[in-house]
Amino acid sequence: MKEHQNQNSRRGFLNTLGLGGLSLAGMAFAPIEEQLEYTTQKVNRNSSPSDLKITDMRIAEISEVVFRTPIVRIYTNQGIVGHGDVRDGAAKEYALFLKSRLLGENPCNVERLFKIISQFGHHGRQGGGVSAVEMALWDIVGKAYGVPVYQLLGGKYRDKVRLYCDTTTSRDPHEYAKRMQERIDKGYTALKMDIGTNLLRDIPGTVINAPNGKYKPYEHEYRKYGLTKHPFTRVQITQKGIDKLCEFLEVMRNQVGYEIPMGTDHWGHFGVNEAIKIARAVEKYNLAYIEDIIPWQYTDQWKEISLSTTTPTQTGEDIYTLEGGFKELIDKRAVDIVHPDPNTAGGILETKRIGDYASLHGVGFMQHHAAGPVSFMGAVHSAAATENFMWLEHHAVDSPKFEDLVTGIEKPMVKDGYVSVPEKPGIGVELNEDVVKEFLVEGEKLFAPTPEWDEIRAWDRLWS
């Protein structure tokens, strides 16, 4: 009915002009009311962006269907709501802490609001609150103006975003390869596998100072192996250990071939010397990248590794903002590929900024993701709008309910290893609240009121 009325309105207007739809030269002679009606017929009349105000922020925290993920919902005075995800495993309080800084503000001022709240984010999961809010703001802006988020970033370079997917591990290399093949059979064209000291457990003579070895060197230490930064564990890989890890890569490449790019992750916690040793040993397998083989903070050590091998190096999923760590890595050409997670890096626009800066310096750009489908699609917009983008991680290949959490998009979301860029306003999806309720963390409610976060006594200025 509405469409029919619009068509009649347009037809009547053109008839009034006597143009027959061929020219609008006579528009100046039409009554001003009809001019306005015609020229603004596609404007979202339920929204007045200049008068938008943030009125509330609430959380629905889910688990099981994806990693434990707090979903943020921001409300406005015009009924438009926006969604974003706090990064997997992060605390919902990282987002709720920001509420008092946002109430009463116009959500369309995304950059200004980001500068207000960005000081309360940090690396790793601590960037999750700011990033979730930033995504929710873009979702609102897109809905208010009736355009997809990528259009607000300057438009898109691609209609489909290429994905890479992780693969569940197995200590049997042939079983591991079989799981990889299943990914290929589903249409994925880029792969990643976790490989490292965890696969050498209980194999004597493969790891020196092993965290799970006979002598258990960390049993009485103040901090466990998994919480000890790589240079300080003094773990070493023997030639036998390297040969065993290479056996996994050999079986894997024999299975999947060399046409499909394959990266590796989760090698273990050891220092730069072992990293170089491994990176050189795996050169013959032409890996797409070797990820996070040491912590991202050690820029000079990353550069040493990168200059010591032809295996491409990659890091970045735990870095918050361009200036927070990516800029130095890129300026020093310390790695071959930067790998921000939009749920840590600062959201959609900040991730694009990182990609653009990497492009300027000839550094590759991928995106990590391990949260819900809302931020997954938010990452798609960022990827679509960034010229040098390579691949986006899809970490929910084995979770059939992942796509059920959202509505408003053609399903399956992933087809032949790609996801189409949404053309609907905002991020392009809405929550399926019935499914969200199924996976709420025990004791949590669906977007319960959060008045305790409305006000906070604090002086945020960082200078005197």
Q: Would you kindly provide a brief summary of this structure?
A:
The chain has helices at 2-17, 32-39, 93-96, 99-102, 110-117, 128-145, 149-152, 173-185, 239-256, 272-281, 299-307, 322-331, 342-345, 348-360, 373-384, 433-438, and strands spanning 54-62, 69-76, 81-85, 160-165, 191-194, 207-208, 236-237, 262-265, 289-291, 313-315, 337-338, 364-367, 389-394, 406-407, 414-415, 418-420, 430-431. The protein is of the alpha/beta class and 464 residues long.
What do you see in this structure?
This protein is α/β, with parallel strands linked by helices and 464 residues long. The protein has a domain at 52-147 and 445-453: Enolase-like, N-terminal domain (Enolase-like, domain 1, 2-Layer Sandwich). It contains 16 helices and 17 strands. The protein has helices at 2-17, 32-39, 93-96, 99-102, 110-117, 128-145, 149-152, 173-185, 239-256, 272-281, 299-307, 322-331, 342-345, 348-360, 373-384, 433-438; strands at residues 54-62, 69-76, 81-85, 160-165, 191-194, 207-208, 236-237, 262-265, 289-291, 313-315, 337-338, 364-367, 389-394, 406-407, 414-415, 418-420, 430-431. Helix 10 (272-281) runs parallel beside helix 11 (299-307) and helix 14 runs parallel beside helix 15. It is globular.
List the helices and strands and how they pair.
Blueprint: H1 2-17, H2 32-39, E1 54-62, E2 69-76, E3 81-85, H3 93-96, H4 99-102, H5 110-117, H6 128-145, H7 149-152, E4 160-165, H8 173-185, E5 191-194, E6 207-208, E7 236-237, H9 239-256, E8 262-265, H10 272-281, E9 289-291, H11 299-307, E10 313-315, H12 322-331, E11 337-338, H13 342-345, H14 348-360, E12 364-367, H15 373-384, E13 389-394, E14 406-407, E15 414-415, E16 418-420, E17 430-431, H16 433-438
Parallel strand pairs: 4-13, 5-8, 8-9, 9-10, 10-11, 11-12, 12-13
Antiparallel strand pairs: 1-2, 2-3, 4-16, 6-7, 14-17, 15-16
